[in-house]
Amino acid sequence: MWRVLLLVFMLGLSHGVSAGAIQLAVGQSSPKWEGYKDNRAYRFAYVTPLEWGRAWLDDYDIRLHMELAYLNWQDALLSDKHGISITPMLRYQWNGFGLHWFVEGGVGATYVNGEIWTDRHLGSRWMFEDKIALGLAIDKHNEIALSAVHYSNADLADINDGADVFSISYSYIW
User: Percent helix, strand, coil in the chain (nearest 5)?
Assistant: First the structure.
């Protein structure tokens, strides 16, 4: 049920927005202990530009956007984990070798429906999402990127194994 509510919330944000994107990332997280399998992770995000600071950010080819994401972490030992995240992102864009590149990064908040993901004890259902990505704009509607995302409770809980997810993503921009 909460997945449906999340989808409605994400679609509601797009009402009246002139630009936005959807993004699908597929990645994996290496196990903490040897002998465990890699864990597959999926992240589906709605991306919307933010106007705050645009006047001075545009001078430096920097953009600010917000990512609202649904997470699905497959778990070989326990039930799959599901979560949501909200992450403001800064993006720097440039042209090089005849291509349109970007690098982006941000720190946001994540809620996941469990504290244990295979062999990692995350310590809390609430975590920070630290994301950095390097990507390529194929054209005005399509982008691909490689990203590294770290999930951690920043030692706000007694236990903090954290988890790193390395992924490839595709974004469609309208």
Answer: 10, 60, 30
pLDDT in tens, 115-160: 999 888 999 999 999 999 999 999 999 999 999 999 999 999 999 9
Pairing of strands 21-29, 163-173: antiparallel
β-pairing, 163-173 vs 142-152, is: antiparallel
**Does position 7 have pLDDT exceeding 80, yes or no?**
no
Hey, what are 139's tokens?
A: 């054209």
- Structure tokens of 127? 């975590």
Distances (CA, A) of 75 to 4, 40, 66, 139: 22, 8, 28, 36
Structure tokens at 120: 């990692």
Q: Retrieve residue 67's tokens.
A: 């990512």
